[in-house]
């Protein structure tokens, strides 16, 4: 049976950097929240003495704390400073840019709109850099409800869909005299989705590897199913069932941005 790996899959730049920094961190380092949405990676790091905490209140004075790729608001840096913590900042540079853009928009006096999932840690961190003044939306109906204003600045969650954003931006155009769009969508997600769509179109079945709680992995599985391709979302090779592939000749594999290479290789 032929097995083909999608042209772009697995760790994106920001996640690879964060996981590498965590891997090099000294024993006793804490990550603020799980480093990525992948239980196997979190488990491996915990075995090396790098474990997650929910808040800086759970960390001793002078400890080492690692900020993950989603980033955090300015309050966390201030609190870390007060507790004399050593900070390893693994915020993805693309997320940093979105945070700075949000800050600049508010400082210029423009109305700040963030297009993204309200409860996602990255969106929360961007909103905090925008002094918590943002209106956060991810659907066209919500854009329609925004009152007219003179000047509006827009920042987008890095993993947001380009197509959905275009529809929302077209509505926002009617809601202001001056629309300042900061295109902060990162191409890593789009490249992975595009490669998955292409592969799903000419294989008998797709395997999508990644945390069951990873939004970008879930989206990869969804785009494969939309190609009418039988699709299985798994976290590790242990979940593979040979019965799925009976009578099939060609299987495609892709993986979310938080899936490490060693898990992908095991599945292959
Ligand atoms: S998806 Fe893009 S923005 Fe998000 S962590 Fe990866 S490289 Fe950074």
Write the layout of secondary structure elements.
Elements: E1 2-5, H1 13-24, E2 30-32, H2 39-47, E3 51-53, E4 64-67, H3 74-82, E5 86-89, H4 93-107, E6 111-115, H5 121-129, E7 135-137, H6 140-144, E8 149-156, H7 162-172, E9 176-182, H8 187-200, E10 205-209, H9 215-225, E11 231-234, E12 250-255, H10 261-267
Parallel strand pairs: 1-12, 2-3, 2-4, 4-5, 6-7, 6-8, 8-9, 10-11, 10-12
Helix pairs in contact: 4-5, 8-9
The structure holds iron/sulfur cluster.
Quick overview of this protein structure:
The chain is 38% helix and 21% strand. The chain has helices spanning 13-24, 39-47, 74-82, 93-107, 121-129, 140-144, 162-172, 187-200, 215-225, 261-267, and strands at residues 2-5, 30-32, 51-53, 64-67, 86-89, 111-115, 135-137, 149-156, 176-182, 205-209, 231-234, 250-255.
